[in-house]
Amino acid sequence: MHLRRRVDSLGSHLLECSASFGRLGQSNWVCNSMAIKIENQYQGKLPRNALANVESGLGSVPREHLRGVERLRVVDRITEPRARMAAKGTDLPGLYHPRQGAQGAWFEVAIAPLTSADKPFHKRIIPRLSFKGNVAAVIFSLVGQHYYFTLRHSVKRGQVEPAVRAYVEKQLKAWNEQQHKFRAKLFKPLQPTLERWSRSLAKRAAAEKKKSG
């Protein structure tokens, strides 16, 4: 239920602003994932593994869903005036820029709204703990918009929003399962040690109980 509310919230903000206009500024090329450049234009220290999380999100979607996307830009906030006006002043976590002429489609991911950077410390704890999943949700929403706006012409415009939300939920579920498998592989070598430790603690607790009894 919490995940569904989160997806709906992100989707409603992102889908209000499916197009963007204006001249692009200078970019700083960081890395290349599946021919998509990831540019870091965040002014400050990024959260730990932020760019790796971006690559993880991009790498978990089908390659064909990214056809026509040139780059993903990491920024502080979305500053495109029309997008901010459509969002009624709310800080958007991401923005899809569709293809314009010879310029391919591209994504923007805003870090500040995902970390609640302008909030008091106690209100920044939960967003930071859930940062990785929120980044993935934003990327899946942007990819979903690109997929349904440009690659799935059978979906009517009025059906795009629910289609994107369903897409995000599906990709998040697969991404979470992938993360769980990775953690399971990571801790598998430690499992025998942890089991021995658990048995040792159980024996000690039983011995202490027998003494006290």
Give a brief outline of the structure:
The chain is α/β, with parallel strands linked by helices and 213 residues long. It has helices at residues 2-15, 50-59, 81-86, 111-115, 121-129, 131-151, 160-187, 191-212, and strands spanning 29-33, 36-40, 69-75, 94-97, 105-110. Helix 2 links the parallel strand 2 and strand 3 (69-75).
Search tags:
213 residues; alpha/beta; five-stranded mixed sheet; elongated
Please tell me about this protein's structure.
A 5-stranded mixed sheet has the order 1-2-3-5-4. Helix 1 (2-15) packs across helix 6 (131-151), helix 2 packs parallel to helix 6 and helix 6 (131-151) packs across helix 7. Mean pLDDT is 76; it is low at 1-33. The chain is built from 8 helices and 5 strands, in the order H-E-E-H-E-H-E-E-H-H-H-H-H. It has 213 residues and is α/β, with parallel strands linked by helices.
Largest sheet: 5 strands, mixed
Topology as a string of helices (H) and strands (E) = HEEHEHEEHHHHH
Helix content: 40-55%
Q: State the low-pLDDT regions, or none.
A: 1-33
Radius of gyration: 21 Å
Q: Order the strands across the largest sheet as they lie in space.
A: 1-2-3-5-4
User: How would the global form be characterised?
Assistant: elongated
Quickly give the structural class. Answer: alpha/beta
Number of helices in the DSSP assignment: 8
